[in-house]
Amino acid sequence: MRSETSPPALSVTAPLDTAIAVQLAARGRWSPFEILFWLGAISTIWLLPDHHLILTEIVIWGLFALSLDLILGYAGIVSLGHAAFFGVGAYTAGLLARHALIGEPVVALLVAGLAGGAFGFLTSFLVLRGTDLTRLMVTLGVALLLREVANRMAWLTGGADGLQGITMQPVLGLFRFDLYGHTAYVYSLVVLFVLFLLARRIVGSPFGLSLLAIKGNPLRAGAIGIGAGPRIVAVYTLAAVYAAIAGALLTQTTAFTSLESLSFDRSADALLVLIIGGTGHLYGGLIGAVVFRFAQDWLSAATPQYWQFWIGLILVVIVLVGRDRIGGWLAPLRRAGDRLVPWRGGRDGGRP
């Protein structure tokens, strides 16, 4: 029987709970660089009206790389078949529009995300066990198998010719897609921002911190009561939803999709984008998409035959120099930003 003079249990845990709440609140605050990043992205709607087509591609690539970063940067799951979810979303959106099953693009986007999430949930159990090499082979095999199924079902997917005859209705019944990509860019940018806010909230939560613990040491995480299995299934399913929405965006903004959306090259390019931008801080996929797509566009115009050589050279330089050293060069800018915003405390996993 507990003595009347013994302190309540809350008095012991309250300081710890308060400290955790303060840390989580600090991680959720926006840095000056984040604010400037999104202000710059929004300003391109008016400042770069002639480049909305390529900017739409960058947004879609950024969202796709962000989905891969959720499992690679935070859960440590290496995947070479992430394009499988991208393709599921792309074909779902295309089939819904072609057969007039769901005409409104936003609703179709949500349905495509759910389809990708369902497929991600079913395949997530394949990556629970095994080493990184096993996961690489399993994810690659799933993507190749799905691509071959889509190729064989030409009556449904169009096969090698792609899914044609897609007609997109106006967004929310108000905004029609135009040839210059203005509506497509604004639509894609809004979707990216909303999903980024959700991902930022998730990775800054206790769930996101538990993913980092699993990535760092799964055995130690399990020893302190952090179950790896359910969390890996959850984040893998979430990443599949994000990738499927990216694929659906590509179909809706181009009114076309093909087997390329399921190809190995698309998965490999997403990894290249993350290598350029960095993993584990969400902005890596966005920044990497900007650098990769503009570098690809400029180099292919300057040296059409050798542009891949220069892309490879950029990757080699990043590996040789080291991301930590590059981060050290940018440290003075970060400290200057911290001094400009006195209320900013702590660092957030979702910051650039």
From TrEMBL:
The lineage of its organism: Bacteria, Pseudomonadati, Pseudomonadota, Alphaproteobacteria, Hyphomicrobiales. This is Branched-chain amino acid ABC transporter permease. GO terms for molecular function: branched-chain amino acid transmembrane transporter activity. GO terms for cellular component: plasma membrane. The keyword Transmembrane applies. It is a multi-pass membrane protein. It comes from Rhodoplanes serenus. Its main location: membrane. Keywords: Cell membrane, Membrane, Transmembrane, Transmembrane helix. It is found in: Cell membrane. It holds the Pfam family BPD_transp_2. The chain crosses the membrane at residues 30-48, 60-86, 106-128, 184-203, 223-250, 271-295, 307-326.
